[in-house]
Amino acid sequence: MSRHTLTLLPERLAIIRLDPSLQMPPTNWALGKNLLALIRTPDEITLICDEKSAPTAGRSQWGMRALKLLGPLDFAIPGVLASLTVPLAAVGITVFAISTFDTEYLLVKAYQLESAIQALRQAGHMVVTESTSS
Known about the structure:
134 residues; VC0802-like; alpha+beta; 2 helices; 8-stranded mixed sheet; globular
């Protein structure tokens, strides 16, 4: 199984589910340089943004933390996401995964963050946080 390096992002995030018919007005959630994702499907709009600027409308999950996989990753490498999520699932940690062209982000509940980092390290991955370098 492949070993990877992840970095803990400093901000707390929110995941918001909005009605798909919503017209997206200009709001402050789109400002800044923090992680931001907007996914629209016929069934829903999902917004992931900094908790400080998240809208209060819609169903939401607050208090999320993000671990960013060091990239860029080659599309031809199989099992990258599985190598990260299987150890977390084994200890009962739910993950919200976001894939970009270059990398993966794992969002976990803030209260499970330390357990998530421990599980990833025990699986052989390196997790870099603000307070450590391992």
